[in-house]
Amino acid sequence: MKIKVMVTGKNRRIAVDISKHLEADRGYKVIKCDAGMDALFDTEPKEMPNVIIICLGDESKETVKVYDVLKECVNAEWISIIVVANDDDTKVFMANTKLHKMFFMPRPVSLMVLYSKLMEIESELDKNIEKANSIIKEYVNPDFEDKHRRKHVLIVDDDTDQLLQIKEHLSEFYEVTAVRSGKAALKYLEKHKADIMLLDYMMPEMDGPTVLATIKKNDDLKMMPVIFLTGMTEKEAVLKTILELKPQGYLVKPAKKSEIVAKIIDVFG
To answer: What is the pLDDT, as a whole number, of residue 132?
Structure first.
């Protein structure tokens, strides 16, 4: 199979150069992504690359932590990470990253070494797919009941740090999907089901009340429980909205794990 490669990092010159060579020399599909937490959060699940190449440049503890947004997919071994860096950036990255597995390549980049590693990853993916196809058998349990399924929580917040924190709190107990806007939430719900929504009250373009009002008008969604996520300054407005739109309550950010889980349990009864 032809792998899909996402290229990112502060060193834009090297990132652009690698991208051009991968497309021209090897015919790979290359996704270029800014080295920002929001960009990485949005692009990785949408594009589902097989390999992410991070091109480091003059890194600090703070800039390295941006890439921690990738830790869930990497720790689950869905994606291979290749880090291109000099000695100083390599030391900073290794000392501060939460990613547990990656390959390091020194600068200047040897394209032959990079191509060799990508071909190795490509070959391994082909083997895994072939093996999976040979052993996978479908079975549908006729006695399966909905109560045995892990509940699905949809979190909507334009603050990526809040999203990641809440998702980490809840992933132990629930299936969790996180999106960064009201429009993204409604688009997700067009094709997927959620058992409950944690909805940020204040968001750009489409705020929480507008999202909830839209859901209330949809016969397929109107029964889905909604809990607002709000700051202290919005409390009075939220209370007014509760009277008008009747969500299942609210949580003041930043909420503790125990508070969030207790509220969800309360809603589910």
So the answer is: 60
The CATH T-level fold of domain 146-268 is: Rossmann fold (3.40.50)
Q: Using CA atoms, how far apart are residues 257 and 137, in angstroms rounded to an integer?
A: 38
Pick from 184, 246, 158, 161: which is nearest to 209 by CA?
Answer: 246
In 80-173, which ranges are E strands? 80-85, 103-106, 152-156
Residue 193 DSSP code:
-
User: From CA 126, how far away is CA 122, in angstroms rounded?
Assistant: 6
Q: In whole angstroms, what is the distance from residue 191 CA to residue 27 CA?
A: 32
| Domain spanning 4-127: CATH 3.60.15.10 | no
Q: pLDDT tens digits for 87-120?
A: 999 999 999 998 888 999 999 899 999 999 999 9
- Checking if the pLDDT of 263 tops 90, the result is yes
The residue among 235 and 52 whose pLDDT is bigger is 52
Q: Is there a shared CATH topology between the 4-127 domain and the 146-268 domain?
A: yes
What single letter denotes the amino acid at residue 170?
Answer: L
What's the rounded Cα separation, in Å, for the pair 90 and 55?
A: 11
- Computed over every residue of the chain, the mean pLDDT equals 88
Q: Which of 115, 160, 138 is nearest to 25 (CA)?
A: 115
177/172 Cα distance (integer angstroms) = 13
173: Cβ contacts below 8 Å, ≥ 6 apart: 150, 261
Q: Are 268 and 196 in contact (CB under 8 A)?
A: yes
User: What is the rounded CA–CA span in Å between residue 10 and residue 56?
Assistant: 6
Token look-up 């969500």 returns 247
Contact 15, 8 (CB under 8 A): yes
